[in-house]
Fold:
Amino acid sequence: MEYDASMRERLRFSANVHFVYDVAAGRFSFMHPMLADLFGLDKVEADLAPIVGQIHHEDIQVFKGIYPGLRRNTFTGSVTIRVINDNKYSVLRIVPILTSQGNDFLIVGSAEDITGETEHNESILKYANKKNSVLHMLGHDLRGPLNIARTLLEVMQKQMTDGKMLDQAYSVKSILESSLRLINDLLTREFLETTELVLVRKRTDIVKMITEYLDEYMVSETVGRKIGLSASAEHIFMDIDDAKFMQVLNNLMSNSLKFTREGDSIMLTISELDDQVRFDFSDSGLGIPPDKLPTLFERFSDAGRNGLNGEPSVGLGLSIVKQIIQWHGGSIWCDSEEGTGTTMHFVLPKSGTQSG
Structure:
């Protein structure tokens, strides 16, 4: 997304600027000059049409839903919209309040320029996604060879008779086991870290975020799996806690890598429904034994299994995934056939309570 520096210079709100919208008249009875300037208006009293015409088409329904939401008392907090001016973007955070004057309803609100904040957050999210995917790729790629090396060393130790060589082999084995523990501890700590935080939702293009995340896997020659993404629309917006959502993806991807071989496929399908988004995370791996399915999402259940290369199971992963999805008001279930593969299905609502 491209942001216009000159537009930000014109806007540059040192604090929130205000507006008053007369619902019955269908026009603004007051708009701060800085806000009017952003929309290219000559006066602080303006009709709604030219303003709506400058709002990004993906944000128009969100903008139009403010008043009905205020009337139903279902809208709280703020809404974020993108303004297009000369094919450049600026991002506004709007905090509206519904009030009345006689028999007329007024929307009194404030607007804040958060273009710089948005750019910063998008940059952080992009590199966080890259870090997460690289971390899990390295964890998977390193644990496999290290486990194989440890197993081979154990076989060699049984054939050794020289005491000095046995001591050296024991030292090498200790180094390998220490390295494996370090990798496992790092991945476990990384996964559990964000689950301790408060859920913070924000409007997110889920297709864009997942595409950036999977791109790191798709270009990696070391993964050896066929990784695909299919979405019913180019852009799908949801109110989610993106950090916790990434924990869901990290865990599901980690499981798929643990129980698939080179040449197997991993596929994520995103389907936009009326007020929900459905995710189907499938792989063509080993599948899950039928007796493990009933307790799959329970904490410290017996469903945990070591991976094909000896990757350990902490016994927490899928229980935390379920918890995060439930925090978002969604649900998760699993279909699996042993020897054929596994599909994790989960559904999340598009909208949630927004906070400033």
Q: What stands out?
A: The radius of gyration is 26 Å. Residues 52 and 64 are 9 Å apart (CA to CA). DSSP finds ten helices and 13 strands in the chain. The chain has two domains: 5-113, 119-349.
